[in-house]
């Protein structure tokens, strides 16, 4: 005599609204407590969801953290693209990207929204690069595109766009961290130093650099 077949409970499909709620709650907790203070239980309590709801959408805490960083980077990429859209050429577009990233240090609204998550993302670059690398690449996309374009148009010389984009980000991030720590820098001076250093490394003519650096 055979036993009746056990009826399997059908697995619910992921719900985009629930996923967004989990990511939003995680973003809040990260801002308040950082990666080390983040737990799935805290996130679910904040989102008022169950453990089952979490595992319908994410395999692990690491995957969730990576998703938050990627979402943050996507929003930052869109903001930078809007800022770069008015640029007349690749040189001005690179300068606009640098200006946009300096907002993290000097623009009150941008700084308050992105500072903590940016610091958390940077802290993971060496501890867990697999969590942050996709987000980091996303944020650099518009800069890399303009570096490629400038190479084709022969306004940048002897560069590797990906490597140069990473170097430019490093210069801007160092200035941003210094301003966050000391708060004693004038934006115009920081901007001019960053532009001169980065654009000179791209082979931009000195007179063009001077003209762009002199703008507000």
Topology, pairings included?
Elements lengths: L15 H18 L6 H8 L3 H7 L3 H24 L5 H17 L1 H20 L1 H24 L8 H22 L4 H15 L4 H9 L2
Helix pairs in contact: 1-2, 1-4, 4-5, 4-7, 5-6, 5-7, 5-8, 5-9, 6-7, 7-8, 8-9, 9-10
Helix content: over 70%
Characterize the largest beta sheet: strand count, sense, and whether it forms a barrel. Answer: none
Strand content: under 5%
Rg, Cα atoms, Å? 22 Å
Architecture per CATH nomenclature, i.e. the level-2 architecture of the largest domain: Orthogonal Bundle
Please provide the count of β strands.
Answer: 0
CATH superfamily of the largest domain: Tetracycline Repressor, domain 2
Shape: elongated
Low-confidence stretches: none
**CATH fold group of the largest domain:** Tetracycline Repressor, domain 2
Oligomer: single chain
Compute the number of helices. 10
According to CATH, what is the class of the largest domain?
A: Mainly Alpha
- The SS-based structural class is mainly alpha
Order of helices and strands: HHHHHHHHHH
Note the gap between the termini: 86 Å
How many structural domains in the coordinates? 2
Tell me, rounded to a whole number, the average pLDDT: 86
